[in-house]
Specification:
Elements (H helix, E strand, L loop, with lengths): L2 H7 L27 E6 L2 E6 L7 E6 L4 E3 L3 H4 L6 E4 L3 E6 L4 E6 L4 E7 L6 E7 L2 E6 L4 E8 L3 E8 L1
């Protein structure tokens, strides 16, 4: 398949040869890029944390508009030991597995706020969010939890198990 066919297939209307790679700000630490990384888009920035679990974390925030790397706010990185997702890139949700707790990041107070606590969230390995709904999947797909966010960020969960 030729490049023009690929561009057409994905909806790019650029003429062949009219695009180019742009050089962006370099990552602040080369060690960061050697580890597995979790990343979410949040308010025009790419927030990344490496090392899952309770080990010491390295973090980075890439500001797309300013093309620069920044330090992640302390409250955002604290509690990032498990899956995270953003709701329309405006609210970050994270699962705190030890407590079986869904938390959201409050940027004004720079902390994570409890949304709901469920025993079934203790084994959550994946999370997705969008259109006022959050979905988590547990280890080996043993349970799926759908949560509908109601006014003031409270949840009404539906739990499905094998």
């Amino acid at each position: 398949m030729r490049r023009s066919q690929v561009n057409e297939a994905v909806g790019l209307e650029q003429e062949e040869g009219s695009w180019s790679w742009e050089t962006k700000a370099e990552l602040k630490d080369g060690r960061f890029g050697r580890e597995a990384v979790e990343a979410v888009g949040y308010r025009g920035e790419l927030c990344m944390v490496n090392v899952k679990g309770n080990a010491l974390k390295e973090e980075a925030v890439y500001n797309v508009e300013m093309d620069k790397w920044e330090n992640m706010p302390r409250g955002m990185v604290g509690g990032s030991n498990r899956p995270a997702a953003t709701m329309d890139e405006d609210v970050i949700y994270v699962i705190v597995e030890v407590k079986g707790c869904l938390r959201k990041y409050d940027d004004e107070k720079d902390c994570r706020v409890k949304v709901i606590e469920l025993e079934q969230l203790r084994s959550a390995e994946q999370i997705a969010a969008g259109r006022r709904k959050i979905c988590t999947v547990s280890a080996k797909g043993e349970s799926i939890i759908f949560m509908l966010l109601i006014i003031k960020q409270t949840c009404k969960p539906s739990i499905y198990t094998k």
